[in-house]
């Protein structure tokens, strides 16, 4: 059974963690550093954390639809 | 006791535990009916949240990743970090698309991409082509795992061919006996060991001046090389090559048989969705490993015999306390054996379901399927071992590169096919073959350059196609673009000519089915005309009613 359109729409949020790691041309810099790690490198770690948050959120708001 | 003795002692003791666990895995939540391919190949599709998480971590974040990625950042700097954005992007895509693949596979009893291709586009020929492509791409992937294992064993002091063959034999027997249960159980052991290794590594970096000094030291070393492309940041001309490599790698992972196999072992859709949310933890582990390449470079770690794959094992030997080094070596070795096992299961299942059954023995029972797959999994592993023993290990890395480009060509069928069946089966076949030809020819024409830009070999010198102005593009993406263009044009022509396309054995709601679904296996007869459901009463049980 297809899920209601309203909670399907939340799935579009997944585009954010899928696209953010591709912004490397803008992330190609050393400063600011975090714990000595240049921006280019910790930016991807931040993207991983963002992916966890966004995916968890989308999973929770559309969870009812799983029990079809 | 010398430091080396402690290292080797801890390593050998842990490996013995691992082997015992692998043998015992067949008893782990033992099934009622162990002689079916469903049980052997995907653990009866009954794995829960934690098991799947460990299994996926074990099969996708392999020793090759943990050894080759730091070797790349050590060698060329920022470009080697492509693996991290690649890994991050796979997680939201897993959430959105692997659930669809799981549902359709669950309802139809698929274990492989190739079976899906056959059913979706009504073409056993397309399925067979996808199967052959998948198997050809998987064998060198198994081989590079064994190359990584060899690099670890050599650093520990077990050089030569026999230790490698012994390891392959042991893991083959475990897989033969226990199927997917063996790598799933070992993945848990591996992650505990790996977590310890990462903790030690982070403490090591902190004790030697922190990441500041690691990155600054690496920057100084990169500045001293003649290669303009290396460094802590991407050169201005490096973005296209970097991004196409990331995107190509992301797509490829959804086409490799082993990545799908792990997901199909999940017990329901929610398991996959929760796993997608938790998988970025592995991305962070990978990022730390990748950055260790800079630490090794800054500290002047020298690879053994110029083989960059030994950078990480060497760094562990020089900077870890000996007992921690033993743990780390065990972690890396298990991390090589798990994917080798999962990949060989995936290749064997693909062979059985899409080549053996349709073409060689149409009425094979499930017991025969499981038996054939067991033996084929042995052939795959020993074939991969023979490959690296017979040819230069560096060549197996090249084969893996070709494998990545090759597997990408099945994307229109197995990934886009989840969303649309607009493509015509004959168009998909022509696109796949054109894409393969373009990809392999481009790889053949790529010369290998040394750091200063001189040609050291004429052919198969990497997967970056130079555009002449300093920029480069990943060959796999170019070949995939050609493949898609051919597929679209041929589809349009065939549709205009009213050539009938094959029947779609799947229905829209198949892509949303979940555990407990009453229509499970309903369409068996339509797929290949075989009364499978009748012959195997055990299948009914899987419906989890």
Automatic annotation (TrEMBL), chain A:
InterPro entries, per database record: DUF3311
Highest taxon above the source species: Bacteria
Pfam families attached to this UniProt entry: DUF3311 (PF11755)
Parts of the chain that traverse the membrane: 39-61
Keyword Transmembrane: yes
Keywords from the named record: Membrane, Transmembrane, Transmembrane helix
Protein name listed in UniProt: DUF3311 domain-containing protein
Automatic annotation (TrEMBL), chain B:
Recorded superkingdom: Bacteria
Subcellular localization(s) per the UniProt record: Membrane
Membrane topology, record value: Multi-pass membrane protein
InterPro entries the UniProt entry points to: Na/Glc_symporter_sf, Na/solute_symporter, Sodium:Solute_Symporter
KW Transferase (keyword) present: no
UniProt keyword list: Membrane, Transmembrane, Transmembrane helix, Transport
Transmembrane stretches, start-end: 6-26, 47-72, 78-98, 119-142, 162-180, 192-211, 240-265, 277-298, 327-351, 372-391, 397-419, 426-445, 473-494
Chief location of this protein within or outside the cell: membrane
Coiled coil spans: none
Keyword Transmembrane helix on entry: yes
Record family assignment: Belongs to the sodium:solute symporter (SSF) (TC 2.A.21) family.
Protein name (Swiss-Prot/TrEMBL): Sodium:solute symporter family protein
Organism: Actinoplanes flavus
């Amino acid at each position: 059974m297809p899920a209601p359109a309203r909670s399907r729409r939340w799935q579009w949020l997944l585009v954010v963690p899928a696209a953010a790691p591709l912004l490397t041309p803008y992330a190609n810099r050393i400063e600011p550093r975090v714990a000595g790690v240049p921006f280019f490198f910790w930016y991807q770690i931040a993207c991983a954390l963002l992916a966890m948050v966004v995916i968890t959120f989308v999973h929770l708001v559309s969870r009812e639809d799983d029990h079809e | 006791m010398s430091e080396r003795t402690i290292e080797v002692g801890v390593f050998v003791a842990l490996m013995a535990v691992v082997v015992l666990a692998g043998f015992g895995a067949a008893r782990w939540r033992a099934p009622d009916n162990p002689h079916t391919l469903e049980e052997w190949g995907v653990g009866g599709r009954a794995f829960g949240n934690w098991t799947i998480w460990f299994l996926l971590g074990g099969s996708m974040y392999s020793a090759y990743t943990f050894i080759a990625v730091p070797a790349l950042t050590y060698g060329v700097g920022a470009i080697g970090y492509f693996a991290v954005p690649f890994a991050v992007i796979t997680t939201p895509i897993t959430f959105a698309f692997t659930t669809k693949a799981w549902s359709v596979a669950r309802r139809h009893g698929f274990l492989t991409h190739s079976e899906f291709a056959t059913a979706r586009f009504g073409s056993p020929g397309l399925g067979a082509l996808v199967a052959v492509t998948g198997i050809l791409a998987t064998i060198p992937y198994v081989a590079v795992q064994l190359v990584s294992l060899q690099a670890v064993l050599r650093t520990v002091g077990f050089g030569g061919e026999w230790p490698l063959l012994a390891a392959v034999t042991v893991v083959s027997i475990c897989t033969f006996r226990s199927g997917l249960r063996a790598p799933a159980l070992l993945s848990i052991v591996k992650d505990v060991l790996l977590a310890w290794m990462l903790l030690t590594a982070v403490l090591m970096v902190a004790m030697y001046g922190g990441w500041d000094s690691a990155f600054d030291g690496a920057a100084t070393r990169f500045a001293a090389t003649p290669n303009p492309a290396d460094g802590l940041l991407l050169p201005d001309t490096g973005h296209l090559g970097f991004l196409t490599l990331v995107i190509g790698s992301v797509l490829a992972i959804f086409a490799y048989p082993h990545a799908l196999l792990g997901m199909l072992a999940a017990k329901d859709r929610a398991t996959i969705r929760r796993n997608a949310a938790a998988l970025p933890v592995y991305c962070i582990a990978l990022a730390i490993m990748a950055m260790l390449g800079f630490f090794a470079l800054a500290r002047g770690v020298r690879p053994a015999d110029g083989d960059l794959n030994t950078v990480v094992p060497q760094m562990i030997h020089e900077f870890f306390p000996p007992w921690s080094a033993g743990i780390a070596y065990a972690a890396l070795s298990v991390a090589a054996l798990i994917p080798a096992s999962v990949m060989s299961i995936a290749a064997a299942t693909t062979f059985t379901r899409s080549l053996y059954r349709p073409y060689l023995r149409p009425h094979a029972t499930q017991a025969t399927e499981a038996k054939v797959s067991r033996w084929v999994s042995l052939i795959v592993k020993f074939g991969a071992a023979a490959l690296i023993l017979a040819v230069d290990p560096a060549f197996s890395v090249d084969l893996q590169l070709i494998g990545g480009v090759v597997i990408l060509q099945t994307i229109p069928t197995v990934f886009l096919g989840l969303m649309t069946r607009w493509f015509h089966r004959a168009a998909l076949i022509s696109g796949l073959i054109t894409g393969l030809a373009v990809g392999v020819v481009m790889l053949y024409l790529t010369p290998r350059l040394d750091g200063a830009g001189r040609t050291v070999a004429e052919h198969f010198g990497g997967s970056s196609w130079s555009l002449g102005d300093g920029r480069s593009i990943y060959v796999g993406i170019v070949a995939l673009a050609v493949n898609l263009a051919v597929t679209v044009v041929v589809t349009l022509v065939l549709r205009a000519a009213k050539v009938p396309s094959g029947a779609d054995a799947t229905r829209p709601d198949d892509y949303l089915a979940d555990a407990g679904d009453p229509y499970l296996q309903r369409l068996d007869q339509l797929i290949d005309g075989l009364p499978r459901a009748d012959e195997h009463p055990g299948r009914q049980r899987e419906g989890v009613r």
